[in-house]
Every structure is written in structure tokens, then in C-alpha cells.
Amino acid sequence: MVPGAAGASSTCQGYNQPNCSPTTTTTATSSGTLPFTGLDVVLLVAGGGTLLAAGFVVRRLSRRLD
After folding, report:
1. Which of 1, 7, 12, 26 satisfies CB 3.0 to 4.6 Å to 20 for a cystine?
2. Is residue 64 part of a domain?
3. Domain assignment of residue 43, given as a range
4. Residue 37: is its pLDDT beyond 60?
5. What is the mean pLDDT of residues 26-41?
């Protein structure tokens, strides 16, 4: 048996329940900016514009076939 493993709980390790001992302490800094979440807005807008343009092309070509 591994010493220390008997007292460890997977709930405390996975979710850091209030009755478990805290693993780390963080201090909040107020710098006035939002943190970067990984979403690149330029690529999102470019992808939306591409899909919009493709929709107009398909609609235009479908009118000529009628």
C-alpha cells in the first residue's frame, strides 16, 4: 500500500471541494484588461466572411441554371 494514498480523495483532487485543503492560492490582479482565452477574432470573422461569400456564389450560380 502506498503511504499517503489512503487519505487522498479523488473528489478533492479533481474538484477541490471546500472541505479539502487548498492546493494553491492565487491572487487576483486588476489590470483592467480581459485575459486571452485563445479565440482569434480575426480568424473567426474571416471564416464567417468566407462562408457568406460562398453562399452568395452558390445562390448566384443556382439562378443561372434555372
Report:
1. 12
2. yes
3. 39-66
4. yes
5. 74
Say if 66 falls within a structural domain.
yes
The structural domain count of the chain equals: 1
Q: Is residue 43 part of a domain?
A: yes
Q: Does 60 or 28 have the greater pLDDT score?
A: 60
Of the candidates 16, 34, 33, the residue with the CA atom closest to the CA atom of residue 25:
16
Element of type H or E holding 61: helix 41-65
44 in any annotated domain: yes
Closest CA to 21 of 35, 3, 42, 7: 7
Between 18 and 53, the higher pLDDT residue: 53
**Distance from C-alpha of 62 to C-alpha of 51, rounded to nearest angstrom:** 16
- Quote the DSSP letter at residue 46: H
Provide Rg for the chain, Cα atoms: 26
